[in-house]
Design a protein that fits this description.
796 residues, alpha/beta, 3 domains, two-stranded antiparallel sheet, 34 helices, 13 strands
């Protein structure tokens, strides 16, 4: 009886919380709608009544102005519909040619995945640099993986100001992983991952003297890059993951106005069975147009009105940009049934990638903790498809603590844009010229970071020449603080998704048992092709093209309008203000509909799934919270690190000294990172010759020791330098660093100066007090010993 009463109380709590949340969403939606209408009305002079002296109303009463406006509207209408006709023609032509990549740059095929032992419809191509750009083959190569989420490949390089364009301008070899419209028979996502491993190894073979290739993953390509790096960590360099939904259950519940509606779609559709049904109706192939339509449904104001009115309003200048984007947006690719089912079961609904439940072709699990290279996570607060919680929460899921990140030698850098939408992360020229360019500029420095979790900050200012310049800095954070900041409700909103997963499994089995045999029996290539051709997104394009004989007049008419159209036809913009007002009303109404729809969807989701298995989940959550609240010294990685406080040699001693002298709690500017890189090259003879990932592991373990036992870390430092030669080597490095002008230019803190004296005191050596010879000082004047502190840190 007590259990029943507890569940009843729990249901009441869920219901009241959902009701309050829906009321908040509704009020915010109404407020925003009213504000937008008021702003639009204010631009034409108020309430709508004619006002003396108001230019808009004065012009509206002028019959000649009305005539000129009517002519302008007629001309713009002809040009608008002709632009859509051109879009339809381009769609038909590209479909006949097999939908080629939309890459702006010339490219050549390197590896064709269709010819591999396990063929896939993927290929590796090398981008050819534009005129005037010289590629340095010794520089780090870049490999870009675009999302296969309905659209075709190439969006990461479909214009000069893009991810590919930024890397090419910097002189890097750039490779692109493309895919073709039709999947190979029987290919799976695991086959694709295996093929991508071969692509990366081929890039390494082509650039044996270069650093390991940087992997750029966009959206779905992001988790594909993570799978690739975890299964083959020895061939991948830094990872840049842009807008990738790694933790699909996460979101910003109760923090915004229906921010993340897409994460509820799996639950509201009953799980994965609908994807299987759609693939079966396609005779074993899933039509990517369904995914694109889901994206368009997220923002009906833009999909149904805003982008078209923007074209109509700017018809003299906008068509080239519109058609260029539609060339990518209007290309729909296919997946095998096995591929879409793997994605929905393991990622969208199952959320299994980070948990290690997903296994590769060899049977080994994809363990993201095996990734050896630094990871940069780029997300945006304005992204309603992949919010920052989905991009970052997997870090908290697979790494139990900050200490584990350090002990494993991992470097994770987060960069958050404040407003850009999901597509803008990959498409926006402004983002490419700012965020992506600065990311590319710091990859070398990030590889030398001590292990940990960092935030990347880009400050913008105007240089002396009037051009925009950027200053990059980094701030170290604790994983626990970031997780709490992103999830202020401690992720209790993710609990219902476990119920979604169970319901999905039940519905999937029911579909496979009762319905799937009948669907497969009536499906064939003819019916599948017919439904693909008449999909609304395809039909609206080919029906409005030259295939339609009723539009034969449109092209010649548009040419005549272009020949006669002149600037005077649309100079008078007073009546345009009324047009803009009407457009704003339509757009605001569609946004209001979206806000209310998303609020109702969210309310229905939590009302339904929030009560399923709620008691068990609540108890499990409480147990996890209690476990996390324990003494952090009891964490396995902390215990192991502290137990090895007396173990090690010169490598561990150098890392510990660097940790003892490190500056804590202040931003790390890019200039200091570059100095560290320079010093590491100049004094390489004094540094351990270890691969970067191994050095980061040593550094991370020593940082844990210094953090929890600073006094013991200093007292036991001599135990790591029992060999006199090692002490001499360390002190000689100290002498050379303190005499370096670059080190002298950095200002040590009092804490660093005091720690430096303590290190000297605990490492007695006669040679340390002997006069320094001229040969031991690098062509610079004498400097006080206190100048060592930052230098030793930078060199380490």
């Amino acid at each position: 009886m007590t259990d029943v009463a507890h569940k009843y109380v729990r249901c009441q709590e869920v219901g009241s919380r959902v009701a309050r949340l829906f009321a908040k969403r509704s009020e915010v939606a109404r407020s925003q709608f009213n504000q937008r209408l008021a702003d639009a009305a204010g631009r034409i002079g108020g309430t709508g009544a004619p006002a003396p002296g108001n230019p808009a109303w004065t012009t509206a009463l002028d019959p000649w102005a009305g005539y000129r406006y009517a002519v302008d509207v007629a001309e713009r209408s002809v040009l608008f519909w002709d632009t859509l006709r051109q879009r339809g023609n381009a769609f038909v032509d590209r479909a006949r040619e097999g939908l080629q990549p939309v890459l702006h740059f010339g490219h050549e095929l390197v590896v064709d995945g269709r010819k591999l032992p396990r063929p896939v419809n993927y290929a590796l191509v090398r981008l050819l640099p534009p005129d005037g750009v010289v590629i340095d083959v010794s520089k780090r190569p870049y490999v870009i993986i675009d999302p296969r989420a309905g659209h075709g490949p190439g969006i990461g390089g479909f214009k000069d100001d893009s991810q590919a364009g930024v890397a090419l301008k910097a002189g890097h070899p750039v490779y692109f992983i493309i895919f073709f419209r039709d999947p190979e028979p029987g290919q799976t996502l695991l086959d694709v991952c295996a093929a991508e491993e071969q692509f990366i190894r081929k890039v390494c073979e082509l650039h044996p003297d270069s650093p390991k290739p940087a992997i750029i993953g966009n959206c779905q390509g992001g988790w594909a890059a993570m799978m690739l790096a975890s299964s083959d960590p020895d061939h991948t360099g830094p990872l840049v993951i842009n807008g990738a939904p790694m933790s699909y259950w996460s979101g910003a519940w109760s923090e915004g106005e229906g921010d993340n509606p897409m994460r509820y779609s799996g639950g509201m559709l009953g799980g994965t069975w609908l994807a299987s049904l759609t693939a079966d109706l396609g005779n074993g192939k899933f039509d990517g147009a369904h995914l694109v339509q889901n994206f368009e449904n997220l923002n009906p104001a833009n999909s149904l009105w805003d982008k078209y009115y923007h074209l109509f309003d700017n018809i003299d200048t906008e068509p080239p940009r519109f058609l260029d984007f539609e060339r990518w947006w209007g290309g729909y690719y296919l997946m095998n049934r096995e591929e879409i089912e793997w994605i929905t079961r393991n990622l969208f609904v199952g959320n299994k990638l980070w948990s290690g439940e997903v296994r590769g072709l060899d049977g080994a699990a994809f363990d993201l903790r095996q990734i050896k290279s630094p990871i940069i996570l780029f997300a945006s607060l304005g992204d309603n498809i992949t919010p920052p919680q989905q991009a970052f929460n997997w870090v908290a899921d697979i790494y139990g603590s900050t200490e584990e990140i350090k002990a494993r030698g991992q470097v994770i850098v987060g960069l958050v844009h404040q407003s850009i939408g999901h597509l803008g992360i990959f498409v926006s020229g402004k983002v490419a010229k700012k965020e992506h360019r600065e990311i590319a500029s710091v990859l070398e420095a990030i590889e030398a970071f001590p292990p940990g979790l960092y935030g990347m900050h880009i400050a913008e200012h105007t240089g002396e020449d009037g051009k925009t310049e950027y200053d990059v800095s980094f701030q170290e954070y604790w994983l626990e603080d970031i997780a709490a900041r992103l999830n202020r409700f401690e992720r209790i909103d993710e609990q219902p998704f476990e119920a979604v997963n169970r319901v999905s499994e039940l519905n999937q089995r029911a579909y496979e048992l009762f319905l799937q045999p009948w669907v497969r029996a009536v499906s064939n290539d003819a019916t599948a092709n017919l439904q693909r051709q008449f999909h609304p997104l395809r039909a609206q394009r080919w029906m409005f093209s030259d295939m339609n004989p009723w539009l034969s007049w449109l092209g010649p008419t548009a040419e005549a309008v272009r020949a006669k159209r002149h600037a005077q036809a649309h100079e008078d913009t007073s009546l345009r203000e009324f047009e803009h007002y009407g457009s704003a009303m339509i757009s605001a109404s569609l946004d209001f509909y979206r806000a209310m729809r998303d609020a109702m969807t969210e309310g229905a989701f939590f009302s339904l799934y929030g009560n399923l298995f709620s008691a068990d989940q609540s108890e499990q959550a409480q147990a996890k919270t209690a476990e996390a609240a324990g003494d952090r010294r009891d964490l396995p990685f902390v215990r192991d690190a502290l137990a090895s406080i007396n173990e090690g040699g010169y490598t561990e001693a150098l890392a510990r000294a660097a940790c003892l002298l490190a500056r804590h709690g202040e931003p790390l500017p890019l200039a200091r990172l570059n100095l560290r890189h320079e010093l590491a090259k100049d004094y390489a003879a004094y540094l351990p010759q270890l691969p970067g990932d191994q050095w980061r592991r040593v550094r991370g373990e020593q940082e844990i020791i210094v953090h929890y036992e600073p006094d013991q870390a200093l007292a036991t430092l001599p135990n790591l330098l029992r060999d006199r030669k090692d002490r001499e080597k360390l002190l000689e490095l100290a002498e050379k660093l303190l005499a370096d002008r670059r080190v002298q230019a950095t200002e040590p803190t009092p804490t660093q100066l005091s720690m430096l004296d303590s290190i000297r005191a605990c490492l007695p050596l006669e040679r340390a007090t002997a006069p320094r010879s001229a040969a031991s000082v690098h062509h610079v004047s004498e400097a006080p010993p206190s100048r060592l502190a930052p230098g030793l840190k930078e060199a380490s």
